[in-house]
Design brief:
The complex is a heterodimer of chains A (about 325) and B (about 375).
Chain A (H helix, E strand, L loop, with lengths): L1 H28 L5 H6 L5 H11 L5 H15 L12 H36 L4 H15 L2 H12 L22 H35 L2 H8 L4 H13 L1 H15 L3 H6 L5 H11 L2 H29 L7
Helix pairs in contact in A: 1-14, 5-6, 5-8, 5-11, 6-8, 7-8, 8-10, 9-10, 11-14, 13-14
Chain B lengths: L4 E12 L2 E13 L4 E5 L6 H8 L8 E9 L2 E2 L5 H7 L4 E4 L3 H4 L6 H12 L4 H14 L5 H4 L9 H13 L5 E5 L7 H18 L2 E6 L2 H7 L2 E6 L2 E7 H6 L4 H8 L50 E2 L6 E2 L5 H12 L4 H12 L4 H8 L3
Parallel strand pairs in B: 3-8, 3-9, 6-7, 7-8
Antiparallel strand pairs in B: 1-2, 1-4, 4-5, 9-10, 10-12, 11-12
Helix pairs in contact in B: 4-5, 4-7, 5-7, 7-8, 12-13
The chains are: A mainly alpha (about 325), B alpha/beta (about 375).
Amino acid sequence: MTRYVIRRLLWVVVLLFLVSALTFVIFFVLPSTDPAALRAGKTRDPEVINAIREQLGLNKPKIEQFWIYLKGIVLHFDFGHSYLNNLNVRDEILSRLPATISLSLGALVIWLFVGISVGIISAVRRRSLMDRAAMGTTLVMISAPVYWLGLVSLLLFSQGIGVIPIFPGSGSYTPLSEDPWKWFTSLILPWLVLSAAFAAIYARILRANMIETLSEDYIRTARAKGLSERRIVLGHALRSAITPIVTLAGLDLGVLLGGAILTETVFNIPGVGRLSYDAIIHGDLPTVQGTVLFGAFFIVILNLVVDIAYAYLDPRVRYT
Amino acid sequence: MSPLLEIEDLRVSFRTEDGVVGAVDGVSLSVDRDRTLGIVGESGSGKSVTGLTVMGLTRGRSTTISGSVRFDGRELTTASDAELRTVRGNDIAMIFQDPLSSLHPFYTVGRQLTEAVRAHRDVGQGEAHDRAVELMRLVGIPEPEQRMRAYPHEFSGGMRQRAMIAMALVNDPRLLIADEPTTALDVTVQAQILELIGELQKRLGMAVIIVTHDLGVVAEIADDVAVMYAGRIVEQAPKEGLFGAPRHPYTWGLLGSIPRLTAPRDEALVPIAGRPPSLIHPPSGCRFHPRCPYVRPHHTRIDPQLEPTGDPDHDVACLLPDPVRRALWAKLAAGATPQEARATEDEMMGPPTETETETQAGRP
């Protein structure tokens, strides 16, 4: 097991290297703006721009630029400075991480709770009115784009513009350390919007898994033992059916920690997603690089966590 | 005293997208304490459904069950789910064909055994554990304390089935239903498991129903045998009667399709021609008529009932006259093929009529 984890961690390093190289290449093969001009702001003076180019090292060969960038990360955990506002990219990302983590973890709790409950009930009461209604709703939830759902929810429920103004609106995010209650209320709408599609997908997957599991031989054995239906469903069937859900939850969380771009943008939450959105729009390479690397890091690490968790969830899985 | 288990005119049908499947169609059986009943038949004969229905395991929204299943005087077909739960795994226990898929892959064997104990007894974890270990030892699992902590996939096939048996017996059931308990096992292990079941049956004084497609299993372990075909019992007799003087052409077919060690090496096995019939649209008249080598025209119209043969406790549902059946079996037992035996039948009953020729042409 330890050897397996070490091997996987080495792969994480290789993968992150490839990801950064790829972002670098994409950025220079498809250049959107001249970084020096961006840094210069309103000035069009070629001398100033040249000076900046010199200062940022943009005159050096591309491969050398990449080398310097990598050295910065490995030796100083330094992701460079934004071309846009000269802020330290690492500090900028770390300062925005709490907002993204708040949004992602809160949504995860909601969608797991809703998805799993609906999935179980739908599977047990298959073809009932409840099941049909729930499955119909999940289709709508999956089909509705997050930005649309976000705007609709703001129009319906946000203070200021909503028809029933019960929740704080866009841009109301308050850090947890400042005011826990405001933090909570400001995130209710984003949580619901972000978790809607996930909850729907999880409910459908769990329902299908449960139905399949409930027809397994070992469920028949559990019945033959005289166990209560509750124990059979929650103790025996759910135990097997939930394994893929755990995998999925890990991967989805990894993706979201890299920035829930759409939700953060619609609700104007100052998270990593919002940061990368702005960076992409302005062609701010160091920030794009940084957010991509952070996102990739979360995905790869949570992948590893999921694989390790699997060994505990399914005793038949053994890593060597 | 009435028998421990008495099934009367049991009918079980399932609504499916293709139509209503009459899986069990008027089965009557009884099993006494200390006896072993073998139910034999092909897949789809209704033998497993009969066993599962006793436990109430076929209940569902698309299932219709009628008739009566009385266990120790208690009617089970109309019992509530909660009542039935107190019987399952307690008074009546069941083991299944594939012990690997029948055990939960994520729980240790020990946990699954103790869970079975605690489902019916108000005991603590420690006491349940001790009981589970005791049963593991009883069924011959070496080092039971250690094996309690192992997962099903860490057991061999035979040990898994022993664990299943231990789990079934943990609450001292009075009836054990074994549904194809040896089918998924290696031949060498099959014999051990059968021996174990037989031994435990004697030691614990249980009644046993063994459901199987294998007459060899029945010969090994059963006291009485019921042969099922297309949802019905076609022949029922004590083991000696069934193997010594079988009366139904289907039973003859089953006997002809098992290899015998004493037979000459080049003796061909005689499979029963055709396939098991559809249970949505079962054949008219005698349900075996499309596959019966000895069919007569009126067999396609008249439905045979289970009737005494004259031998003790031996019933058969066949329209052929008893003397003809005796003569046919005598021929077959002497090594004749069904075609050769058929000639004897024609001699005794006259040649087939025109309608009969048609029927024969339509046979597979």
